[in-house]
């Protein structure tokens, strides 16, 4: 570990925290229906969309109507994307004449981008036409991100409103998130990436002759526009197979830093939106504080594991005195690679600037654990916030049991209905992760995809289903997942990981919105200070430990001790 590495991490945290208040204030005003600086320009466009769609922006929905609208919207997006992928050879903007995707790969990819997972069982530049990348994948990058933001807002309104039957309008929330927030930022972001050297064109691929006389095909395409929303919307799907380790997606140290910053930007700001909505910004600070404690601990452990280069690894290529450099870009080094890995798995983004399969056993375990905890450490845009709030409800309920009184949170009593729904939501992803991993361990079609034996091979499978159910999309990169078995089962895991959490969460929002606010009393647990932060962190870690520790012991922990004994896989 170096001073320069720690300075990068500290600078990142400082800039992130400085961005929370201004962006949170803008988002609070925007989604409260107030005038923002973009209203004169985009207000007529917004109203035009509502007129065309027959949407009354003043009409709100109860939680069930909101859920139906959200499910219908995503179902139609899935169907459209599946159709594009199955017919891309006949569609325009396909200079390489890339063929249609198979039924199972199209299902997996359409489900992946609809659920904001962006798992890729294919090489982007060798599989997807420009039309599929832009009209199919990039559009879903915007819409799935807007869906997550809208869902977080629905839950925030549940806490903030008093005896209300409605939690907002799904169509209005999605429109505003896309039109006023995601599109403007991505416009400037894409220009910044072009300045840094990311291509943005419709040219055919370039054929070059290397110094050795070999033929090389260099991918081209509209990369910068997709890269911007991929990061800001915590989508993670790469235009090229190497993702953000490729110089066309991430050419410089400056682009690398801003890509990392943009991953957390909206997720962190949503905590400020929550604090403003409930009338006590320290409530939002407490949630952000719990997230940052888990994040900093994860970065420290991952950086230590990758930089320490244990003596047991000294004989393995790529492990040097500076740390484990195998699978990492020398442009970024160990510190930035470890930081990127923790950010992308804490935020359900899935973009990578290094191969997690090449991390040390403990270095790879931290990103995996981030996903298993529900990616609530900042998390995906919206999804991380409402995931952490589910844990907060469970923590409040446990605290209430300890003192023998009905728990309260921001003036709302947390009763059996909310706790049951929260428990149902947080158990959905573990069921998919462990269930499908167990299935893959015993079926020939599952074992066939492994590149490694022993605990590392088990980690490859465990990480894949964790990534899918956690809607992350990153991979250990050692699993051959483009098979009917993996395409179907991973697609189903993505479906469960997204929608089995959304519906109970919206039911909680509806239940809370209908409740009266009760004044705090002497027995009310303060939820805006350090004690509450510690309680939430403990609940997240205990839940993750109890649920996933046995599987982690079989995978990365067993591999770590095997590595210390001089065995590698």
Q: How would you describe this structure to a colleague?
A:
There is one protein chain. The protein has 569 residues and is mostly helical. It has one domain. It is 64% helix and 3% strand. It is built from 18 helices and six strands. It has helices spanning 3-31, 39-53, 63-86, 103-114, 124-127, 130-160, 170-196, 223-232, 253-277, 281-308, 333-346, 361-372, 383-403, 416-442, 444-447, 454-469, 484-513, 530-564, and strands at residues 206-209, 215-218, 319-320, 323-324, 408-409, 412-413. Strands 1-2 form a two-stranded antiparallel sheet. Strands 3-4 form a two-stranded antiparallel sheet. A two-stranded antiparallel sheet has the order 5-6. Helix 10 (281-308) packs parallel to helix 18 (530-564). The longest helix has 35 residues, at 530-564.
Features:
mainly alpha, two-stranded antiparallel sheet, 18 helices, globular
What is shown here, in short?
The protein is mainly α and 569 residues long.
Write the topology of this structure.
Layout: H1 3-31, H2 39-53, H3 63-86, H4 103-114, H5 124-127, H6 130-160, H7 170-196, E1 206-209, E2 215-218, H8 223-232, H9 253-277, H10 281-308, E3 319-320, E4 323-324, H11 333-346, H12 361-372, H13 383-403, E5 408-409, E6 412-413, H14 416-442, H15 444-447, H16 454-469, H17 484-513, H18 530-564
Antiparallel strand pairs: 1-2, 3-4, 5-6
Helix pairs in contact: 1-9, 1-11, 2-7, 3-4, 3-6, 3-17, 4-17, 6-7, 6-8, 6-9, 6-17, 7-8, 9-10, 9-11, 10-11, 10-12, 10-18, 11-12, 12-16, 12-18, 13-14, 13-18, 14-16, 14-17, 16-17, 16-18
């Amino acid at each position: 570990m170096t001073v320069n590495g720690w300075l990068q991490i500290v600078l990142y945290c400082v800039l992130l925290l400085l961005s929370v208040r201004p962006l949170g204030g803008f988002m609070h005003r925007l989604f409260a229906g107030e005038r923002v600086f973009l209203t004169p320009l985009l207000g007529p466009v917004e109203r035009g969309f509502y007129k065309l769609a027959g949407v009354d922006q003043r009409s709100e929905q109860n939680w069930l109507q909101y859920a139906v609208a959200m499910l219908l919207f995503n179902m139609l997006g899935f169907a459209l994307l599946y159709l594009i992928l199955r017919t891309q050879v006949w569609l325009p903007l396909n200079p390489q004449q890339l063929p249609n995707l198979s039924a199972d790969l199209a299902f997996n990819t359409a489900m992946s981008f609809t659920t904001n997972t962006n798992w890729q069982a294919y090489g982007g530049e060798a599989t997807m036409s420009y039309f599929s990348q832009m009209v199919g994948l990039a559009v879903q990058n915007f819409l799935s991100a807007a869906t997550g933001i809208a869902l977080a807002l629905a839950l925030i309104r549940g806490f903030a409103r008093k005896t209300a039957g409605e939690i907002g309008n799904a169509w209005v929330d999605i429109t505003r998130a896309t039109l006023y927030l995601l599109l403007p930022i991505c416009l400037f972001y894409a220009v910044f990436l072009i300045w840094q050297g990311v291509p943005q064109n419709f040219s055919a691929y370039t054929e070059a002759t290397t110094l050795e006389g070999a033929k090389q095909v260099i991918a081209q395409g509209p990369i910068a526009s997709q890269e911007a929303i991929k990061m800001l919307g915590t989508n993670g799907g790469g235009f090229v197979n190497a993702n953000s380790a490729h110089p066309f997606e991430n050419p410089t140290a400056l682009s690398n830093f801003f890509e990392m910053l943009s991953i957390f930007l909206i997720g962190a700001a949503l905590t400020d939106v929550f604090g403003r909505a409930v009338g006590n910004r320290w409530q939002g600070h407490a949630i952000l504080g719990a997230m940052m404690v888990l994040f900093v601990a994860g970065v420290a452990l991952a950086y230590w594991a990758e930089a320490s280069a244990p003596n047991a690894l000294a004989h393995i290529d790529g492990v040097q005195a500076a740390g484990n450099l195998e699978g990492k870009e020398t442009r970024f080094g160990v510190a930035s690679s470890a930081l990127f890995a923790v950010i992308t798995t804490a935020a359900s983004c899935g973009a990578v600037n290094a191969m997690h399969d090449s991390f040390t056993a403990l270095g790879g375990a931290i990103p995996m654990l981030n996903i298993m905890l529900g990616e609530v450490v900042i998390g995906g845009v919206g999804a991380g916030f409402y995931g952490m709030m589910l844990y907060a409800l469970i923590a409040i309920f446990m605290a209430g049991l300890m003192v023998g009184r009905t728990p309260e949170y921001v003036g709302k009593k947390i009763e059996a209905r909310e706790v049951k729904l929260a428990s149902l939501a947080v158990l959905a992803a573990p069921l998919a992760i462990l269930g499908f991993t167990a299935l893959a361990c015993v079926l020939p079609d599952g074992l066939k995809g492994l590149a490694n034996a022993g605990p590392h091979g088990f980690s490859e499978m465990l990480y894949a289903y964790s990534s899918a159910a956690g809607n992350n999309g990153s991979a250990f990169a050692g699993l051959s997942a483009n098979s009917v078995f993996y395409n179907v089962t991973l697609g189903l895991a993505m479906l469960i990981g997204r929608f089995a959490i959304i519906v109970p969460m919206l039911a909680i929002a509806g239940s809370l919105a209908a409740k009266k606010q009760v004044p705090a009393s002497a027995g009310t647990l303060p939820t805006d200070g350090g004690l509450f932060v510690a309680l939430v962190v403990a609940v997240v870690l205990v839940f993750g430990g109890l649920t996933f520790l046995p599987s982690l012991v079989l995978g990365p922990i067993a591999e770590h001790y095997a590595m210390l004994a001089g065995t590698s896989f």
